[in-house]
UniProtKB/TrEMBL annotation:
Keywords: Coiled coil. Residues 205-239, 291-325 form a coiled coil. This is IQ domain-containing protein E. Residues 354-368 have a biased composition (Polar residues). The keyword Coiled coil applies. Residues 173-193 have a biased composition (Basic and acidic residues).
Length: 403
């Protein structure tokens, strides 16, 4: 559009330029120096040449306005020229603004690229271990921290490399197992086609497939272990920020043992507390059971004591009654019974007397009309029973006092 406007302006200048007078037949020259043959200028192709058709046309509002202005001293052609000039100036202003903005943006881009290059160079210098010197840094802590991070990075890369080697080995084993399985399968099919026995081959193929499954499971477990170790190492690094210089010198086995010990301690702490609580509860339960059994035994002993007391009272009454009967039945010339001599009776004499009494009792049963008892033996038995009961009561009372 700008080129078209410039062409029109050149044409208008050629038309309305001042003509130079010459004495040769009134021939004139334009700005370029070429002679013009006629005095009537030629109009540009953009302007209409059929003026009669324009005169008979119905004038529009714009044409009426342009005619009114032309009457005031300005023609429509001059209006178009002025509009074209204004558009050209506005386009030039916009172009100048765009050029200025482009220059500013280029300058800013160069500045940012220079800053980015400086930062990249600084980071490369910091990460390059060979060219890095702590004396170059203005902050000593920054240098120490950077060295620690470099050690961690090296150890992490070593661990990752080891795990990757293991993974690659397992992958290779898996590929080999698959290839061996395919080869065995092909050989088995060839054997089946040839009529050869394939029982051993099928068995070995099953073993190989089982081994393949085990290796795949082992690979998955190692992968999980690798992930778990990475997480543990990250936790330890974040947890022990103050002891980086100590943990950085540890080996992989030491770190794994440390993690296992910490886990076992963390797991055993609640278990020990629960076991202690259960032991306390069991001890208390045992004591309660023992106390209950002691109370029960005490009650039984008290009941037995009451029964024994009643038996002793009955025996004492029977003894008194027997003494009275013996005293009444004693002849006048017979001395009374001396109970002190009963304690000095030996066991053999006691057994003989007991046997004589038993024989006398059997004889009495045989002779129902005659029942005779040895009163000395009866008195001795009653005394022994009474003495045993009294000693037992005394022992039970002492046990009750102790409890």
């Amino acid at each position: 559009m700008v080129s078209m406007l410039e062409d029109r302006l050149a044409t208008i200048r050629q038309i309305y330029a001042p003509r130079a007078k010459s004495g040769k037949g009134g021939r004139t020259r334009n700005e370029s120096g070429h002679p013009q043959t006629s005095k009537t200028p030629t109009l540009p192709p953009a302007f209409p040449t059929n003026t009669r058709m324009i005169a008979y046309r119905v004038p529009s509002a714009q044409s009426v306005f342009s005619l009114a202005r032309s009457k005031a001293g300005r023609s429509p052609r001059m209006e178009q020229l002025n509009d074209a000039r204004e558009q050209l100036l506005q386009s030039k202003r916009n172009c100048a603004k765009l050029v200025q903005e482009n220059t500013i943006l280029k300058t800013r881009l160069l500045k940012l690229s220079a800053q980015s290059g400086k930062r990249e160079h600084h980071l490369q210098r910091l990460l390059n271990r060979e060219s890095f010197e702590p004396a170059e840094s203005y902050d000593t802590n920054e240098a120490i921290t950077l060295a620690t991070f470099q050690k961690r990075l090296i150890k992490s890369e070593a661990l990752i490399k080891q795990q990757q080697d293991v993974i690659e080995k397992l992958k290779n084993d898996r590929v080999r197992a698959r290839s061996a399985a395919s080869e065995r399968r092909h050989s088995e099919t060839r054997g089946i086609r040839g009529g050869e026995p394939t029982q051993e081959r099928s068995q070995s193929l099953d073993d190989l497939l089982a081994k393949n499954e085990r290796l795949a499971e082992k690979y998955r477990s190692l992968k999980r272990e690798n992930k778990y170790l990475r997480e543990r190492i990250a936790r330890l690094e974040t947890r022990h920020n103050g002891d980086d210089h100590e943990l950085s010198d540890w080996s992989k086995e030491d770190l794994i043992n440390l993690v296992n010990r910490l886990e076992t301690r963390a797991l055993k702490a609640p278990i020990r507390a629960a076991v202690a609580t259960l032991e306390e509860k069991t001890e208390v339960g045992k004591l309660i059971k023992e106390l209950t059994s002691v109370h029960r035994n005490l009650e039984n002993s008290q009941q037995e004591n009451e029964v024994l007391k009643s038996e002793v009272e009955t025996l004492v009454k029977e003894l008194e009654h027997a003494r009275i009967v013996h005293k009444d039945a004693r002849p006048p010339g017979v001395p009374p019974l001396d109970m002190k001599s009963i304690d000095n009776v030996s066991d053999s004499q006691e057994d003989d007397q007991t046997g004589n009494a038993y024989e006398t009792y059997q004889d009495g049963e045989q002779n129902e009309g005659q029942r005779t008892f040895d009163l000395d033996v009866v008195a001795m038995e009653v005394f022994e029973h009474t003495k045993a009961h009294l000693s037992r009561i005394k022992f039970l009372r002492e046990q009750m006092k102790k409890q």
